[in-house]
Design brief:
Elements: H1 3-16, H2 24-34, H3 39-52, H4 59-63, H5 66-92, H6 100-108
Amino acid sequence: MDRAEIIDLLIVIKENYPNFDVSEENIDRHFKYLHDFPFDRAVQNVDEHIRTSKFPPNIAEIRGSLGEQMERSRMRSATEEYFAEREEARKHACSPPPGWKEDIYAKLGRA
């Protein structure tokens, strides 16, 4: 987001929460923590917050669950990669040699 988008976002918040601080310092603070965040996603998060909370959103609430979504996406990719590796290993797997299980049991003293 650029500074103008931050101001637009804070105006929306101020319209719904009249006591919300829209000072230059607060604009600067929001810009510091939201400059890397997509404006459209911030608007969606603020709209949802307005529907569900009587208190103005803080920066973490404006960012919403994007961090969690990114982590879920990362974990989904890692899981897909893991299962692809397991599938490849399954294609190259072979049964143990005859008598292998019995030899292991004998070594463990369970013959």
